[in-house]
Amino acid sequence: MEVERVQHVASTALAQDTIPPEFIRSEHEQPGLTTFRGSAPDVPVIDLSTKDEKEVIDAIANAAQKWGLFQVVNHEIPNDVIAKLQEVGRQFFELPQEEKELYAKQPGQNSVEGYGTKLQKEIEGKKGWVDHLFNRIAPPSAIDYKFWPKNPPSYREANEEYAKYLHKVEDKLLRLMSLGLGLEGHELKEAVGGDKLEYMMKINYYPPCPRPDLALGVPAHTDMSALTILVPNEVQGLQVFNDEHWYDVKYIPNALIIHVGDQSEIVSNGKYKSVLHRTTVNKDKVRMSWPVFMEPPLDLEVGPHPKLVSEDNPPKYKTKKFRDYVYCKFNKIPQ
Q1: 134 bridge partner residues
Q2: What is the pLDDT of residues 109-145, one digit of tens each?
Q3: Which of 19, 126, 138, 259 lies 20 to 30 Å from 294 when distance is taken between CA atoms?
Q4: Overall average pLDDT of the 183-203 stretch
Q5: How far apart are CA 269 and CA 256, in angstroms?
Q6: pLDDT at site 120
Q7: Of 127, 189, 202, 259, which residue is the catalytic one?
Q8: Among 125, 59, 116, 67, which residue's Cα sits nearest to residue 93?
Q9: One of 118, 126, 186, 221 is an active-site residue; which one?
Q10: Residue 275 and residue 130: Cα distance in Å, rounded?
Q11: Spacing of C-alpha 324 from chain mean position
Q12: Are 23 and 214 in contact (CB under 8 A)?
């Protein structure tokens, strides 16, 4: 095994009550020093079953502008579908290490799919306290089942069932977000890929960490997706940057956490905000999360929507193929 997995590092670190120096963040990143303490504003929670659609559109548009993140309840994904998704993810990470390594990313592999630890160029050589598994779950033409674990045996069924329900939620959210921009209901989704929008599932596994005040699971970043829909487990960890502070995002059972991604910020010409967020870890408990990144096809050109650009409001972003955007983002090259 060439790469040391964080799950393995954690088992040694917990016994020693310390963490290796490459996991200790600089002071301006350490959650023990930078997390807001006190009465914090709550991230907006939006009830998708509200009868007055205008009210929902306004609430989503306001949240997408001010926070770039919101939670939704009454989203019509059954609780048991979410529970099964979480159960098979947990079971995968509890497998013997050699079995997980069967799905490891290979050196030189183009796709991020598979089991891994490092995702992109690391700032100051610091590592995140997380292992992960990526696999595309929709549309069928984008799926490569070699990255889907065969064990637990119900992994495929649980993910396909979740994807089926998720499609309706994604469709609804992008329609409401589009209307919130003053566009037709279909135009935002069309601009980011329409029915070819790809669903990239990531399972994050954050083992217990003896020094959660010094480490981060995932450092501060925005998502390069159009939209990210995330299911967390019950262990607190997600933080959002707003008004110059890092705030905890409260766990709400069976809510979905919605991140506005870079592509929606670009299409909206900056009206919607791609959310800067990070993940903290827990001293005693495993934290897990299941974000699905709704991404344009790699060769789709994405730029500010023509209806949202004018002489008074010129384009704030370049139009470019999503493939090129991804390359720049992973390699920390200015867009």
Answers
A1: 114, 202
A2: 878 899 999 766 566 779 999 999 999 999 999 999 9
A3: 126
A4: 98
A5: 26
A6: 62
A7: 202
A8: 116
A9: 221
A10: 20
A11: 20
A12: yes
Per residue in 306-326, pLDDT (tens digit) is 999 999 999 999 999 999 999
Q: Is 84 considered catalytic here?
A: no
Rounded to two decimals, the pTM is 0.96
Six token digits for residue 332? 């920390």
pLDDT of residue 13: 87
Phi, psi (deg, nearest 5) at residue 69: -155, 140
**pLDDT given at position 110:** 78
Average pLDDT, the chain: 95
Can you tell me the distance from the alpha carbon of 104 to that of 318, in angstroms, rounded to the nearest whole number? 35
Q: Identify whether 320 is a catalytic site residue.
A: no
Active site residue 223: yes
Of 75, 84, 259, 277, which is the active-site residue?
277
Catalytic (active site) residue 277: yes
Give the total residue count for the chain.
335
Catalytic residue among 223, 262, 271, 273: 223
